[in-house]
Specification:
The complex is a heterodimer of chains A (291) and B (698). With 291 residues, chain A is of the alpha+beta class. Chain A is 38% helix and 22% strand. Among the domains of chain A are: 48 residues, 2-Layer Sandwich (Uridine Diphospho-n-acetylenolpyruvylglucosamine Reductase, domain 2), CATH 3.30.43.10; 117 residues, Enolase-like, domain 1. Chain A has a 5-stranded antiparallel β-sheet with strand order 4-5-10-6-7. A 3-stranded parallel β-sheet of chain A has the order 1-3-2, with helices on one face. Chain A has a 3-stranded antiparallel β-sheet with strand order 11-12-13. Chain A is globular and about 60 Å long. The termini of chain A are far apart. Chain B is globular, with a radius of gyration of 26 Å. Chain B folds into 3 domains: 173 residues, Aldehyde oxidase/xanthine dehydrogenase, molybdopterin binding domain (Aldehyde Oxidoreductase, domain 4); 349 residues, 2-Layer Sandwich (Aldehyde Oxidoreductase, domain 4), CATH 3.30.365; 105 residues, Aldehyde Oxidoreductase, domain 4, CATH 3.30.365.10. In chain B, helix 9 runs parallel beside helix 16, helix 12 runs parallel beside helix 13 and helix 15 packs across helix 16. Classes of the chains: A alpha+beta (291), B alpha+beta (698).
Chain lengths: 291, 698
Amino acid sequence: MDFLQPSTMAEALAAKAEHPGAVPIAGGTDVMVEMNFDKHRPPALLDVTRVSELTEWGMDDGRVRLGAGVSYTRIIDELGDRLPGLAMASRTVGSPQIRNRGTVGGNLGAASPAGDAHPALLAADAEIELQSTAGTRVVKAHEFYLGVKRNAARRDELITAIVLTPPSGPQQFCKIGTRNAMVISVAAFGLALHPDRRVVRTGIGSVAPTPRRAYAAEEFLAAELESAGLWESRAELPTALAREFGEKVKAAGAPIDDVRGTAAYRLHSLAVMARRAVTWAWTDYRTARGT
Amino acid sequence: MTAITTRAVGSSPTRIEGTAKVTGAARYSTEQDHLGDVAYLWPVPATIAKGRVEAVDSDAVAGLPGVLAVLTPDNAPRLETPDDAELAVLQDHEVSYRGQFVAAVVATSLETAREAAASLHITYAEVPHDSELTENHPKLSKPEKVNPAFPTDTEDGDVDAALAAAAVTVDATYRTPPVHNNPMEPHASLAVWLGHELTLYDSLQGAFAAQQALAKLFALPPASVHVINEHVGGGFGSKGTVRLGAVLAAMAAREVGRPVKVVLGRQHMFTVVGYRTPTIQRVRLGADADGQLTAIEHAAIEQTSTVLEFAEQTTVATRIMYAAGSRRTSHRLAALDVPTPRWMRAPGECPGMFALESAMDELAVATGVDPVEIRIRNEPDVEPESGKPFSSRNLVACLREGAERFGWAARDPRPGVRRDGRWLVGTGVAASTYPSYVGPSTASAAAEPGGGFVVRISAADIGTGARTVLTQIAADALRVRVEEVRVEIGDSSFGQAALAGGSMGTASWGWAVTRAGERLRAALDEHGGDGRLEVHVDTAEEVKARTGFAYHAFGAQYAEARVDLDTGEVRVPRLLGVFGVGRIVNPRTARSQLIGGMTMGLSMALHEEGVLDPAFGDYVNHDFAGYHVAAAADVADIDAVWVDEQDEHVNPLGVKGIGEIGIVGTAAAVANAVFHATGVRVRDLPIRLDKLLGGLPG
């Protein structure tokens, strides 16, 4: 197995072009586990940790450009205010050691339906930046996940950054696992309210072959908030509305039974998480000023 | 040398080898850098659950650079017939369970060995397998005895008549899943031959027994086998006896003419080192309206492999726990096409007491008697099975002390009625017990020429603090300060000694160390300190003379459970164990042992479950990614305390084992607390979220 170790973005892209089968490795928290279990034996590993553009984040025209190799720990420490939903999800990843190593780029590369970052990225309308020697393109999060552990990156492309707009409203993330930490999710839910655009966004994890949005639930809630004038009045969210939202989020799931939980449990917990998340988010919205 | 009167036993020195361990200076079994040119062995697990190895095509890998040998059932050196049939590795072509080792590759690097092992082509003749334990399995039969030598069935009085006449009865079936013991350090063996002398560095709970087993297997005089287990990174029963990694290492080292290391992979450990058998247990209790038991029946169904009969003593604790006019216990065993279950921390008592103590809680609910009180009401005067007096029994004191500390008095018995926001809150109690075994041991003590003393015993410190407590015991026997004593352990050449198993280490080794220290002190007092004295002792006669009493430790486990009303998530914010375990030699290491056991019991209650795929006959979640144990975040306020217990009959030190009792009863306490919180009785572990959902109050 070849081990490629570029030190600049140009070298990294050239290496990926030359070795399209090479698997990029950053923190190794997923790639090394898969290799250790002999699930994959890639022809080459492409170490992207020396490419400084990947491990930086910055503001670009009012948006956050998050390098794909920024660790979860840094997202929590440095971006909790700008990317609250992603930071909440990051806090639930593995253990401190895993959060020190693991990256959102790795989560996207693996594209597991259980990846913790995905629901938050979907809810935040994140965009995934892909680069190759041929150029740069941007894929919206909801178009990025193609199948179980398959994503929209071409074989010659590297996932280089995630671009997110700091939120105009509250964000929430919930996750249920079979223990209290270091746990792969049984089900996960991300929510963002976007008062500036009057839209609602969701992301659901571990309940379908891919992370996905609950479109019908989003449209339902946005329409209800609009028609009742709740965006302006900031009145209390009707309990029945939160419950109905939960049921509609649940309807977007298509889970399986596995050793972590039953399909029925996953759907049930999805409805509970969605109901709770929207209640918390709306409370945040009502009490927030100037948003 | 200064004769002193203050006692080291009862004080809390930190682990003697602690600094060496945390700085990496301590050398574990395969870390013997001085040996130089070492080869590596990687085993090949069978990919069928039952059948025969038809052919191993090793030609393709035998020529790979670095490959030194390929061991197969066709070419592996012949061994003498072992007592433990699992050790007859590569001795025939039979495949008795998926994952059984059917070949091995030895190479100059671990990577080469592993790669060659993965590419070895093996042809099997597969036959249908039967790997699933069921209540009415046709292969269920009555074993001759249960581990280690208990009667399979017992009966006293007319259980059926008592049940028929009882005012209140409980009849319930409890299930525990296969659970796996996984010490952080895997089984690791390093074998070196010098002529016809074998030295094995291994991660074992007992060097002497391993020496005996290997000598027999390789047809050597025991003196020609030297086993060293200076540091062991956890065992939990899975390293209780020599395991097949050691046999492969010894076999391969002789074949390739250089030292060979075998370090099992985590996934191997779910198959080849033993696990806790799944159980199906029916408990029937009969009582009068006040909860006084008149009948106890406990019938267990469990599994073993076709290689080795391991019949776990699931119901033996029921024989000694409670007074009842009639009692019946039984064990039935099915030999299936599965890996061999073996010892795992408190084999028998742990799953058995989950069933009995859950049933006692159900009886408390059925009679309306408080769960603490109902146990006190059924306290026996003598051991129910034998009629012998207990050397000491403080279950009642533990229950009362625990109730006081836990704040049990104000408990509302109604289930499912306490809420804290969306959390349902409840508390539960369960009793625990474990036998106070002791095994004969030898030890030596010598005054060193430069001052100070050395005590040698073939004990094993598997992370328990054994080395430290033996140093305390030796210092007291010699009447010197602990700094003047060096205790050497982990070496079969120090002579016969008990295993670090059955919670008998401190009792057995401490006995021998005490005698050695006392004898050396007497000799020194008699002859003066000329600095060249050495004494040897053997406690066999004294240990054999220990009769007349029933020897057990007891305890009470208290748990608080909080269950999310909407999701069924369970949290255990408080766990308290109160134990009557004789004299505590070192409160620091004792507490660590007890809360470690309790944590493992919590893990059993909520997380651990080997999931069998009947189609393949193997456990699908065979690593820490899929097999969940409790994480630090699952353990909140946990504490273990002990009541003052002076037992002059149990052994000269008055100690009872503490390595296992902590896990006994914990799962029942948690399940009982979950019932109290929710009204949902979970009788099959673990308590998964989805088992609670349907029954939660609205």
